[in-house]
Amino acid sequence: MTLSLNHFLRALSLLCGLILVSACQQQNVIPTVPKQPKVLNAAPPTVQPVEKIETVEEAEKVMVIAMDMTDKKVPVPGSITPLSLDLDQDSVSLMPSENSPADSEQNSDNANKNLAILFTNSPEQINTKVPTFEQQSIIEITGEAQPLPEPLDRELQKIYLMPKAIQYAYLLDMAEQVLALGYAQSSARILNQIDLGLVPKNQLSRYLEAKAESQLKLGDSFGAITWLQQAQVLTPDTDPQARTKLLVLKAESYEANGLSLAAANALIALSQLPTTIEPSQYNERIWMALTKVNAQALNLQVTGADNDVSRAWYTLALIPLVHHDMELQLSSVEQWQQQWPLHPASLSLPGALASLTDLRATQPQRIALAMPLHGRLGKVGQAVVDGFMTARFEAQKTSAMIPYIKVYDTSSLSSLDGLYRQAAADQIDIIIGPLDKDKVIQLSQKDALTIPTLALNYIPLGGRSNITTNLIQFGLAVEDEASQLADRSLAEGHKRIIVLHQDQPWATKAAQHFITSWTSLGGEIATQVSFSGAGDHSESITQALLINQSHERAKLLKKHLSGSGNKVKFEPRRRQDVDAIVLFALPSDGRQIIPTLAFHYAADLPVYASHHIYQGPTRTSRDRDLEKVIFTELPWLIEQPEIQQKFSQEWPDRERYTRLFAIGIDAYRLFPRLEQLQAFNNSRVHGVTGLLQMNSQGRIFTHSSWGQFRAGKVIANPR
Predict the structure, then answer these.
(1) Is residue 136 part of a domain?
(2) Is 417 exposed, middle or buried (0-12, 13-18, 19+ CB in 10 A)?
(3) What is the Cα–Cα distance from 203 to 189, expressed in whole angstroms?
(4) Residue 470 has pLDDT above 70, yes or no
(5) Which of 115, 316, 507, 578 has CA atoms 20 to 30 A from the CA of 38?
(6) Angle at 231 between CA 227 and CA 233, to 5 degrees
């Protein structure tokens, strides 16, 4: 009877253990092999090979040995060493109760046995055998999107059977061979099989460069740069072939990662190598990279350049940033060519510089500003007009060619057709406007416009598929920021992200666009959580970080261990499968969310946000709660050019319209360049709203600047 009761109790304990394990496995990441509990102050786990386990009693014994829950020190008779278990993410300590030493010792023994069963899904799943090397080599290329050709596969299997001492050389040759044939994933897997301890130092650079190239071809530019930094130390500068290969990989990796200045420097160095027959072959790539660099960084490069070729490149790239007028640009480029007549770019001007003369001849001379000056959008339209006219008067100071400008008030406009009839009668070359989204949508529904138009708003993405001739769209779109956040997150090596956003239309739209952009780049979304912005944000944060599941697991464990004589001391942990957070929120919510993240053990996760998190300079310390948050923002507000400072001084009461003022300035900079942006896909205009570029649908998208909160203030945070 007693024996049957013991078996019944053991079976019941096993059933409870299985239920709890099932609950514990409701995690964001379920390991393919069950994790063993970690024990503080305990000996390392010992692995015992087990052929077959028939009974629950045998399972208990095996698991106790495998977990090795005993302290290394010999315990004092009658005492108990507290146990600490890591339940995947939670920290749980089993503390002795106030029972007698004998009872405590018995309870501890029972608890150890129960936990041994608790962390075993079933006796049949216990298998500590290590696969043989032959099994590993066969698995090596399974799951490959592009399986290796059969001859290469057979050759690879032969290499795996070679002695370790010589195997590395054949594996490295094979990895480079399959990489050249386009099998990047197979190459990466082969490289992972190389024992670096056997690779001679003079071959390590080959390994690192192959590793970097495979990562680059797999879309991991961040990983490629990491390997190249190590390879650079090992590659001798005196070896022209090795230096050429390293610079080629560096240039490609920096370009893919968005590190434009680093890419330009690598390409310039590559063009100047003795082995380079035609330096001008790199002109377009160098220019494409330099057009993404701001004036401040270029000025630093001019000062610190260690050779004339580099200094000349930086000086040339500064010309469009210093002179926004096309006439002044043309004369400055001609002066530059006279100063550097033998420079590769002087002999073959890159990008749109080669066509400046033609573009100047077709520059619009008569401009119409079609803006609402009264009614609901009156102040908005007036801010745009003020920005446009300010840019016009600034240009006039340098004796640039100034166009004729006429302003049409669209507040009482009866029809858009009437606007175009009036503009045609006034011999207008280009219309800038309208500003109202509904009117822009109306224009987009026409097949063609009689006069080229720069609309200062966007039609919804995914709308009408055909393109309206002569219609170009420009403005500030949260979708552009979301795409930029995705690009930076990927470039900085993040893989799995939490998205937090307010329960507002703008934030929901931004979050959805970010998710679409991020997943298209190969990233993963751990979870998406919205919040109302009313009151405490702790519930949303605990949901996103799975803190609530951590508490539930603790409750189940306490329930299971009730009556065992142990007290459970519990410290929750956040999920460990994420490496960044993207936030779409207003400052008031952000100042609550960031401290709440820190409270819930997520202070180490980088946080990226849209411009909505920043409301402008403040004299208070309220932004200290946004410490380290990185966000997108207009150069107008981050870099604060001279024209922005004048605006703040002259119109301090109109700061709320500062972004619209910036749009007006960039509209003035854009209208003479529209033909250039259409003709050259990689052409860009440096504006106060960001780096401006046009896509094939006639939509100008903006690359904003980056800011970061530090000690309550905002500093520039370029990559």
Answers:
(1) no
(2) exposed
(3) 18
(4) yes
(5) 578
(6) 130
Cross-strand bridge partners of residue 78: none
Instruction: Express each pLDDT in 220-254 by its tens digit.
Output: 999 999 999 888 877 666 678 888 999 999 999 99
In whole angstroms, what is the distance from residue 108 CA to residue 95 CA? 10
DSSP 122-168: -GGG---PPPPHHHHHHHTTTT-SSPPPHHHHHHHHHHHTS-HHHHH
Residues 6+ apart with CB under 8 A from 572: 90, 91, 547, 550, 551, 554, 601
What is the tally of helices (H) and strands (E) in the chain?
29, 18
Per the listing, tokens 């795996």 go with 160
How many whole angstroms separate alpha carbon 113 and alpha carbon 559?
A: 16
End-to-end C-alpha distance for the chain, whole angstroms: 74
Q: Quickly state the pLDDT bin for 481 (edges 50, 70, 90).
A: very high
pLDDT of 381 > 90? The answer is: yes
Burial (Cβ within 10 Å: 0-12, 13-18, ≥19) of residue 124: exposed
- Locus of tokens 């609309």: 455
Range of the domain at 316: 142-357
Q: Alpha-carbon distance 581 to 504, whole Å?
A: 19
Type of residue numbered 24: C
The 3-state secondary structure of 485-499, one letter per residue: HHHHHHHCCCCEEEE
Helix (H) / strand (E) containing 95: strand 90-96
Q: Do residues 147 and 156 lie in contact, with contact meaning Cβ atoms separated by under 8 Å?
A: no
Do residues 683 and 690 touch, judged by C-beta distance below 8 A?
no
For residue range 126-154, list pLDDT tens digits in order: 232 322 223 233 333 334 457 888 999 99
| DSSP state letters, 596-653 | HHHHTT-TTS-EEE-GGG-----SSSGGGGGTT-EEEE-HHHHT--HHHHHHHHH-GG
What sections of 521-604 are H helices per DSSP? Answer: 538-545, 547-561, 587-599
Token readout for 71 is: 């302290």
423 and 486 inside one domain = no
Residues 603, 471 share a domain: no
Among 557, 555, 554, which residue's Cα sits nearest to residue 16? 557
Query: Considering 298, 326, 357, which residue would you say is the last residue of a domain?
Result: 357
599 C-beta neighbours (distance < 10 Å), count:
13
> 132 in a domain, yes or no?
no
What the block records as the tokens of 72 is 């290394």
- Domain identity same for 490 and 444: no
